[in-house]
Design a protein that fits this description.
- The protein is an all-beta fold.
- It has no helices and 38 strands.
- The protein has strands at residues 5-6, 27-28, 39-45, 50-55, 59-64, 71-72, 91-99, 104-111, 118-124, 131-132, 151-159, 164-171, 176-183, 190-191, 210-218, 223-231, 234-243, 249-251, 270-278, 283-290, 295-302, 308-316, 326-329, 337-339, 345-351, 354-361, 368-374, 379-381, 384-386, 400-401, 413-415, 417-419, 423-431, 436-445, 448-450, 457-459, 472-480, 483-491.
């Protein structure tokens, strides 16, 4: 089978794209465990002090100046089981806590004597004195025969300023999986119709029996989830996955990211992440560890890498991989490890952080073009679907118009394009009503790629009279010889 030919050059631009996963290794704190006789923790940092709620004779509370040296609250537990025969009278576990500036909110799992774990809600002014919601549980079991009919547990909740988002574990008594729900107020929840959103791994993989206890962060671009996976009751380890929307998840290929301790150590039976925080420099994880007889809390850190990478697939419009093609990045670079496997997949690793222009070229197809920002410690995925040209003599089929940058923009923008041969170039700007706003005549242009700010078409956001146009959606049309294409852009003021 033929392999992809990869050549590399670099160009600096200023763009942002969705970033895929990259995961550095976790380093366990050598003084572990940091807290004894506890499990199922959630941790918040208020800028001065770490606050932990954890399970020990109910839900208990501890504080720390550094996340390592913890002091248990003398009045523990701060939240206990319900009254006899209440829905949560037999036990409560797995708290997750948010603070909105005036009030703490907690979601936790509780059960009766039949171990029908469900999820309840409580509030507190100080994180110590809690009031349970009068109509608990707020998230109940699924219908008989469903993936979550036996119990639901281990909630993790985020709030995006408008909506609460919850990920939780569910069981059908054979396997545990992860579901998703949303709420406008943290009390009235709607489960996602396509649940579970995260299933067990493929047969024979390390997490093919259970996936449990999610903890989720959102960095403004993607959701990151750490979860427990393994065999029921033992050998649980911590895996990692990412998602653009919190629903469609992609596993990290080198899972698990946190492994069992050496035989005879305190965490040689299971290691399951409870909370992960990011302080802008490093990730901090508090995790449950067990030697099979006692549960303790461990601590680990992970620093994002200093280099990044780009990968993706190149296919035709139907989805079949294209071989014998060229992947190019403009300008020579000193770093970059090139992977050239078959099956239409490419990968460029060891890249310094920065902005790159990636071009996919295949004879007989229109060239694919993308602007990619590489971030330290992350892999940016950029896939291409190439359109075939009409016939071998139709060179103009390779001409192309690309997305303007920045977009949205204010007040000006650049419009990149590609010419396979010399052509007269005109770009016309239209408003959303289809009215011509501005005509940009560039005269005769030589064949080439016009993508940098020095070469791309420039629009200053003015109409033909020199007046700044209003905010809104606009369209730009490239006319180059017989080639004509239109794209949309947005001005935001």
């Amino acid at each position: 089978m033929k392999r992809i030919v990869v050549t590399v050059t670099v160009i600096c631009l200023m763009f942002w794209v969705n970033v895929g996963m990259a995961q550095t290794e976790w380093e366990k704190y050598p003084g572990n465990p940091v807290l004894n006789s506890c499990a199922d923790s959630t941790v918040l940092f208020d800028g001065t002090e770490y606050k932990m709620w954890y399970v020990e004779q109910g839900i208990s509370y501890a504080t720390s100046p550094d996340g390592i040296s913890w002091v248990k609250y003398p009045g523990n537990p701060v939240l206990g089981p319900g009254e006899p025969y209440a829905w949560d009278w037999y036990g409560i576990h797995a708290p997750t806590v948010l603070f909105n500036g005036t009030e703490y909110q907690m979601w936790y799992q509780g059960c009766n004597s039949f171990y029908d774990w469900q999820i309840g809600h409580a509030t507190s002014p100080d994180g110590i004195t809690w009031t349970k919601y009068h109509a608990n549980p707020v998230v109940g079991l699924g219908p008989p025969g469903s993936w979550e009919w036996d119990y639901i547990a281990s909630p993790i909740v985020l709030f995006d300023g408008t909506e609460y988002k919850m990920w939780y574990s569910g069981s059908d008594r054979s396997n545990q999986r992860i579901g998703y729900a949303t709420s406008p107020d943290g009390i009235s929840w709607v489960k996602y119709a396509g649940n579970p959103v995260f299933d067990v791994g493929a047969p024979g993989t390390w997490d093919d029996d259970d996936v449990v206890r999610p903890t989720v962060l959102f960095d403004g671009t993607e959701y990151k989830m750490w979860y427990g996976g393994g065999e029921y009751g033992s050998n649980y380890r911590t895996g990692y996955a990412t998602s653009d929307d919190g629903i469609e998840w992609k596993r990290y290929p080198d899972n698990p990211v946190l492994n069992l301790g050496a035989p005879g150590t305190w965490d040689d039976y299971w290691v399951i992440s409870s909370t992960v925080l990011f302080d802008g420099i490093e990730y901090k994880m508090w995790y449950d560890g067990s030697d099979g007889s006692d549960n303790r809390m461990g601590y680990a850190t992970s620093t994002p890498g200093t280099i990044g990478s780009i990968n993706g697939t190149v296919t035709d419009m139907v989805g079949f991989p294209l071989l014998s093609l060229v992947i190019a990045i403009k300008k020579p670079i000193k770093k970059g490890t090139l992977s050239k496997p078959p099956d239409g997949y490419y990968e460029i690793t060891d890249l310094e952080p920065g902005d790159y222009l990636v071009l996919a070229i295949k004879k007989g197809y229109k060239a694919g073009f993308a602007r990619v920002t590489v971030e330290a410690g992350r892999t940016t995925t950029q896939d291409f679907k190439l359109r075939p040209k009409l016939d071998e003599g139709d060179e103009d089929e390779f001409a192309d118009l690309y997305a303007n940058y920045p977009n949205p923009f204010n007040p000006d923008t650049w419009i990149p394009y590609y010419l396979p041969q010399d052509a007269d170039v005109t770009i016309r700007i239209y408003n959303s009503a289809g009215q011509l706003v501005r005509t940009l005549n560039f005269g005769r242009k030589a064949a080439g790629i016009y993508v940098t700010k020095e070469k791309a078409a420039y629009w200053d956001g003015c109409d033909s009279s020199g007046k700044k146009v209003a905010s809104g959606v606009y369209y730009y049309t490239l006319q180059a010889g017989d080639f004509r294409a239109t794209r949309k852009m947005l001005i935001v003021k």
